[in-house]
Amino acid sequence: MSETKFDVVGIGNAIVDIIGQCNDDFLAQHGAPKGHMRLVDAETVSRLYEAMGPTVEVSGGSVANTMVGIASFGGRAAFIGKVAEDDFGRIFAHDIRAAGVHFSTPPSSSGIPTARCLVLVTPDGERTMNTYLGISPDLDDGEVDPELIRSAGIIFLEGYLFDRPEAKAAFRQAASIAAEAGRKVALSLSDGFCVDRHRKEFLDLVRNSVDILIANETEITSLYQVDTFEKAMEHAQADTELAVLTRSAKGSVICAKSREPISIPAMPVNVVDVTGAGDLYAAGFLFGYARGFSLETAGRLGSIAAAEVISHFGARPQKNLAELARAQGLL
Amino acid sequence: MSETKFDVVGIGNAIVDIIGQCNDDFLAQHGAPKGHMRLVDAETVSRLYEAMGPTVEVSGGSVANTMVGIASFGGRAAFIGKVAEDDFGRIFAHDIRAAGVHFSTPPSSSGIPTARCLVLVTPDGERTMNTYLGISPDLDDGEVDPELIRSAGIIFLEGYLFDRPEAKAAFRQAASIAAEAGRKVALSLSDGFCVDRHRKEFLDLVRNSVDILIANETEITSLYQVDTFEKAMEHAQADTELAVLTRSAKGSVICAKSREPISIPAMPVNVVDVTGAGDLYAAGFLFGYARGFSLETAGRLGSIAAAEVISHFGARPQKNLAELARAQGLL
Hints:
Two copies of one chain form a homodimer. Chain A is an alpha/beta fold. Chain A has a single domain (6-14, 61-103, 135-327), classed as Ribokinase (UDP-N-acetylmuramoyl-L-alanine:D-glutamate ligase, 3-Layer(aba) Sandwich), CATH 3.40.1190.20. Chain A is 40% helix and 21% strand. In chain A, the strands form two sheets. A nine-stranded mixed sheet of chain A has the order 6-5-1-9-10-11-12-13-14, sandwiched between helices. A five-stranded mixed sheet of chain A has the order 3-8-7-2-4. In chain A, helix 7 (192-208) links the parallel strand 10 and strand 11 (212-216). In chain A, helix 10 (277-290) packs antiparallel against helix 11. In chain A, 56% of the residues are buried. Chain A binds chain B through residues 49-50, 52-59, 68, 86-88, 91, 94-95, 98-99, 113, 314, 316, and chain B through 49-50, 52-59, 68, 86-88, 91, 94-95, 98-99, 113, 314, 316.
């Protein structure tokens, strides 16, 4: 296998998060399913924004957040995703590059705006997301640069890409280029509702195309339609080379084929906003895996990154993750 | 005097803050004067933004921040300022309304963008501001609604408005409407460099048109070109009905004509980002003054609001100021 230029290249939605606080009643009034991501149209996103209190804007996007985390660990990361030529598009492009991630997808001048996600944070630190995808899924085949895909050890894809046919096509194309080049294909299941929407296709992917599956407890039990984490874990272990399953405060479990599952504890932390917990766990794990660390160390790097990101508002790290990992003796 | 609909109406620049962290070397490299606000053109703001690390976007603007603070105390506040029909303009309008401030200035569709301020926060919590005014100063006479001005007990104006002729004309018009209606005119000197740019006009305003002067130590010593705070204070006391002078950690001094100056201590706090300290002090003071509290109580409300805003990134309060004031037995 040829040498890699990047540890990981990610493909995902390019989103700016609009973060505000609210109580549970507000979620109920606006029909927002607590703890989940729902897709909304332009009209709904405007109406909900109007009803929200003052907000803060920060770059987001699930796989984009992961790439920023990998760069913060000192990893070489690239991102492919679509923004528009508007203020939000400029914010997204600036922030991901400023974080040290290679990002060269050209912005669209079609007039369709950059994707935005209204993140409603309740006093318990849980986040409920309302995403207007805008131009984000409009990633055509030409923008999934085969050379870039082949130049990375791992390609990381988000399940959310399946929510629109154009993005799904880009996903499939990227996965096939990576497989042909002998690279690893990693998939995040993204969200329990997202799994509901695409269960059949996700099962097919997990069984046939994915080397590293990343999912939380809700997502993996939804994928296999089972009622316990243990049953889901058995299925995942049978279906994939490597399944990395996160369980919030209960930590995570890494299931490799023909091995005992490895349990990794969560780091104790004062939770402010859980947005980005899974994305940053994936950053630590994929960075560790790409650099040849043991599965246990990779998982512990994931726990460090997740703990950092849930200790503040926003889904990207505010502290240098390599320094945090060194302080724990892991780098 | 007729009854008021608003406690305070503010006129100022309508700005979105783009906040990032940097070290002192970065400021030096980019010629940004530490602790001050400088005006930059479109090209400079782009170049500096490119060089900055990842950022967070939040609504700002000096007098706009003050109005949000007044609303957070439970006061009735209105704001007049100009944004464009772009993402940043929508952010500004959303946030100030969501904070409970009346804001009805129509957005511009000229193509000139909404004002933005690159706020560089150094590890000591000091902030250095680089402002591209964009459409903000384009506030024509028709947009300074005389009825709105007359409906407020106090009109609050920022010195920054003098940086562009159109905004200065709006300032003068508003001050004259307020004076004719028997309302109080309050002025913030905004920044030491701003005072340098407009000293002669500011002195004339302070002596002839302003009822309440709000300034920090750098601004007031610059206005009178004296080398000690005490000398500046004597001048201010002679020139204005009421001078409210802030001194960072040393607290503030309120100088009313023919009275001993009143010293107000600062509240102890862990400083994260001083952006908005003066704006929020003004919010507490003006709210207290408008509601007929003693000068000492008004000053203490200012200290509470300033302490809240410097304990986190961003120039607008994250906690309810009325609750904080009640906890101190002041409301």
